[in-house]
UniProtKB/TrEMBL annotation:
Residues 6-195 form the Bacterial bifunctional deaminase-reductase C-terminal domain. This is Dihydrofolate reductase. One of its GO terms (biological process) is riboflavin biosynthetic process. It comes from Actinopolymorpha pittospori. PANTHER family: BIFUNCTIONAL DEAMINASE-REDUCTASE DOMAIN PROTEIN, DIHYDROFOLATE REDUCTASE FAMILY PROTEIN (AFU_ORTHOLOGUE AFUA_8G06820).
Length: 203
C-alpha cells in the first residue's frame, strides 16, 4: 500500500516566530501584540472563506501529530482533567497523536477526533499516525518545536507556511536547531492579511 505525504501547516510572523514570549494557559501564543490567543498572528483565520483552499488543505490529513503544548499547557503529571485547547469537538475529525513524557489513556472527543498520547518519541508517533492514515497524508500540526524535530530528522515532505505581516522579536521560532534545508517553492499566494507559501522539502 502506498503511503501519503507528511505535511505541516504553521502560521509564523515575518521574523519566523510561531508564538511570542510568556506563553501560558491564559495566553497560549504568548506576547503577539494582542490578547495572547493569537488574534494578531492568526488574524487571517477571521475570514475563512478568503482562505478556503488553505483551510481545506489543513484539515484534509487522515491523521495528525502535535506536541504536548499544542494540545494544552504543560502540567507536569496531568494534575487535573484537561481536554486540550480545542474544545469538545476539535477540528481534526481524525486520530491525533500527542507527543508527551506522561502516559495517558486515549481520549475520544466529538466529531471523530481521538487523542492518543505517545511517550516514545517522534518516530513512534509517525509510525502510529501512518498506520492510522493508511494511504492518506499525516499532518505535523505543531507547534514549531515539534515541527523543528521532524524537519531535523528529515521526516517532512511538504512545509506550508502562513506568514503574517508582523514581527515578534522573540519566542518560539521555526527552524531553530534545524540543519540547512533545500526547499522547492510549490505555490505562493498573497492575501489581505497573510502570505501562504508551500515548499517541498528536498533535503
Amino acid at each position: 500500500m502506498s503511503m501519503g505525504r507528511v505535511v505541516c501547516d504553521l502560521t509564523i510572523s515575518a521574523d519566523g516566530y510561531s508564538a511570542g514570549l510568556n506563553q501560558s494557559e491564559e495566553r497560549p501564543f504568548g506576547d503577539d501584540g494582542g490578547d495572547g490567543w493569537g488574534d494578531n498572528l492568526h488574524a487571517w483565520y477571521a475570514d475563512p472563506e478568503e482562505h478556503r483552499a488553505e483551510v481545506d488543505k489543513m484539515t484534509a490529513a487522515r491523521a495528525f501529530i502535535m506536541g504536548r503544548n499544542m494540545f494544552g499547557p504543560v502540567r507536569g503529571e496531568w494534575d487535573r482533567p484537561w481536554n486540550g485547547w480545542w474544545g469538545d469537538d476539535p477540528p481534526y475529525h481524525a486520530p491525533v497523536f500527542v507527543l508527551t513524557h506522561h502516559a495517558r489513556e486515549p481520549q475520544p472527543m466529538g466529531g471523530g477526533t481521538t487523542y492518543f498520547f505517545v511517550t516514545d518519541g517522534i518516530k513512534s508517533a509517525l509510525e502510529q499516525a501512518r498506520e492510522a492514515a493508511g494511504d492518506g497524508d499525516v499532518a505535523i500540526q505543531g507547534g514549531a518545536t515539534t515541527i523543528n524535530q521532524y524537519l531535523a530528522a528529515g521526516l517532512i515532505d511538504e512545509l506550508r507556511l502562513h506568514i503574517s505581516p508582523l514581527t515578534l522579536g522573540a519566542g518560539t521560532r521555526l527552524f531553530n536547531g534545524v540543519p540547512p534545508l533545500k526547499l522547492e517553492q510549490v505555490t505562493s499566494r498573497a492575501a489581505s492579511s497573510v502570505t501562504h507559501v508551500t515548499y517541498r522539502v528536498l533535503s
